[in-house]
């Protein structure tokens, strides 16, 4: 029988197919493909494996992934924007609701209030953290958020120069370069001072001029240093008609004043840390927040959810300002983004709602405390941790006398990932260097073990 | 018809829930001055502290006011809202991905890299291409990656005068937007009376300046562009590249391949064709596949195999660079791998056959209804989706495609994509997918017939729809007006205070 094939994911039975073919007055399904020229038809089977049932599939994936070496989060000292996070059970449980998981972009608001209100809450919570009034419903990641923010500043100011302050994550910088490459933009990356870990203010005075569209600064920076003089940077930029774009770790915002209060125009950042698993680096959550100025908002990329009213006067939520977007404005859209990271944004809304102000504060405080305890341990053993004077939050770099690759290997043998070798980025200033990040799983025990691994004591 | 009603909770915003809104952290500032200068320490954070049970109720209530694939038919055209296998949820939640950091040494992630490597191989086989990058996080990012590859290829080969990309008028909005982001000028070519690219108009549009053609096949009308080889010849003659938008790949898997149609660059939407959930708008994944001459232009790193070990290869001579901070949306990629293995060789081919059968079955039922027209060639079968026009209905009754869409929601089904593609008036773009049953298709047709009849007999019911959902119709225009909009709670509060 030709139609006796059946797969559980297909909706039609053999009898359905026969009766539908009859209704269509055709003899077989192939007739529906008769308009495809024969020369274009595959006319053979794809070279793919056979179908598997659930049991076989689970066995297969389990056996393949068994080739991974699983390292628990308390023994991982990697960060740089994404971190091991305890995802509360409630976040997982709610994200498993198929009403959220298996719905589409809320193009019909009346039947999609759940996703719309949850995304509106995400936007509103980020808006409070950043102090900026308008937040979009997410970008892909910090890298694409930063890149799109720079492109936005070019459109807004009609100028073509971008000044980047201090050390920026090399991956993000690469994404930025990929995005701006076609647009003849001049990218000036200012060096930072070895001792402070920050770009000297006078260098900004020299480099930020009338041609500058924006300054981009990450707080904390990629090496962990924290710029505390945001107010002056904003003044320098605004005096020349340039925008200030700040990349942030959103958790750090629970400890410091909101960037909006300093006059920062656009805040971007990585929302993974707000309740999303690492998953080897994706999906992530690009935060994108903008000052509440209509001229600026009109240049924003991405979807924005707004409060609305129904015909009978009840409060509800819907996508707003869609005339900026590709499905309406086509080549004149502010960005090509369509599918974003909505579900990770919803996860972050649940996460922040669960922690509340108190939970966010105590988590961030414990991170800053522990990173300082670790630095103290390291200093006692003769390390310069960190080698700069600026404040730091949850990560910093440690100069080493030997190649970090040796220590990383030593750590791995002991079941630790001790950090990331960032010598190539900081060599001229600090020589061999390791980038170390604290996460919420670290206890004093692991901090001490890490110090031993770095110091290469008797045990190692 | 059924008495469908959506849940209707008067659930306030999280900010308006009663909780202890602690005046945090005034009293705590001192303890932070050890680490941070006092003048940058935050003085208040206006986020409520709410109990876990109340947070749970809040979001579960919201979820009940949201339609989804698991509830019923969701036939959004060009969105491929098919079943999202539960086995993928289970595996993802239990495979220890949670704490794998992207900077981990590659010897700790060999299993994961094997899955990704094999997925790339499968996608190449399905599309008929040779190399694949899994990095783009969504279809539109895949498109951007593709047109950047196009640009880099021409610049590298001393053809930097190529500054135009040709796009049919029926294309998705992301195509022209992506081309623009890569710095191209967009040249639109019209469709002919058959709903296909007008070949002579294409010839007229092509010049030395043409960098490439972006094409969806079948196109957004659900019609297969049978002269695609001719188009490829025209484009390749001027050294242009052929770009395949994979949004409609679900129509032809196992039947025909973009590579055999002479496309050079293909993006695939895993959240469409390969059954990964849309999550209310994302995350998706938009891998990009290319032929051999474009391998060196792919984003870095790509996953390769060296001495039996999987490695991340950064050494591509002409790479356009990174498009993602790391390697892409890994858990989405893993889900697509699971989907392909579960479906298998035969299932992947059958899903397109059934999707196309469902689409044509529903089309034949619907196109007989009063008020409905099928634009363009009526004799050529549509593929996985089709577009009808409700122009006649509007003329007869004043009821618009928007009204009909809103009224359909009242019966527990989702509306199709409306007012797209732009070349059809009062467009209704329907893609049932292979996941639905015949009963569901019949029910959908019945619902539509009912709404069309209402439009003729009692149009006010349709024009004031929906009636059975969590809320009544939204006043959309007002929500985007600067004087009345409220894009966040902070904005809303500031405006309310200014009014006082």
Describe this structure in words.
The longest helix of chain A is centred in the C-terminal third of the chain and has 39 residues. In chain A, the strands form three sheets. Chain A has a seven-stranded mixed beta sheet with strand order 1-7-6-5-4-2-3, sandwiched between helices. A three-stranded antiparallel beta sheet of chain A has the order 10-12-11. Chain A has a two-stranded antiparallel ribbon with strand order 8-9. Chain A folds into three domains: 48 residues, no CATH class; 110 residues, Aspartate Aminotransferase, domain 1 (Alpha-Beta Complex), CATH 3.90.1150.10; 263 residues, Type I PLP-dependent aspartate aminotransferase-like (Major domain) (Aspartate Aminotransferase, domain 2), CATH 3.40.640. Helices cover 37% and strands 13% of the residues of chain A. The termini of chain A are far apart. Chain A is of the alpha/beta class. By secondary structure, chain B is of the alpha/beta class. In chain B, the strands form three sheets. Chain B has a seven-stranded mixed beta sheet with strand order 1-7-6-5-4-2-3, with helices on both faces. In chain B, strands 10-12-11 form a three-stranded antiparallel beta sheet, covered by helices on one side. A two-stranded antiparallel sheet of chain B has the order 8-9. In chain B, a hairpin with a 2-residue loop joins strand 8 and strand 9. Chain B is globular.
